[in-house]
Amino acid sequence: MSTMTDTTSFTSSGEDRFSTGREGWLKRSENWLDARGKFAWIAAMVLGFIFFWPVGLALLGYMIWSKRMFSSSTRCTKRSASFAMTRPSGNTAFDAYKADTLRRLQEEQDSFESFLERLRAAKDKSEFDAFMDERASRKDDAAEG
Predict the structure, then answer these.
(1) Chain centroid to CA 76: how far?
(2) Is residue 2 domain-resident?
(3) Which residue of 18, 57, 65, 143 is most buried, as measured by CB atoms within 10 A?
(4) What is the pTM of this model?
(5) Containing domain of residue 102, as a range?
(6) How many domains does the structure of the chain reveal?
């Protein structure tokens, strides 16, 4: 019976070693692509289609099956980051500094957006004035000719 136990343990450890090796590089590849985001998966899929189309098709199927294609992980992290910015830290001096900095940044963003709006309005007005001047000069040329 000891030989049977040894054989069983050898077989199972041999299978584990083989499957761990196979899953090891696949898992490392998956983790590497996950760390780089959705665009890395898409790039790998496109490269798979370019070099050997079944690989690209397999990656597409895996992305859809594992829901990597439609995950909203970026939205969740942005939402949790904005929540962390409004949550008090417990240090009143830091919280006051953070509130002041966030208020100042919001004011700067608002002033920049109003500047861009004025810039767009000025550009639109100058383009419209140029159009009207061109139109008037064409009418004058047609009236003279």
Answers:
(1) 12
(2) no
(3) 57
(4) 0.37
(5) 74-145
(6) 1
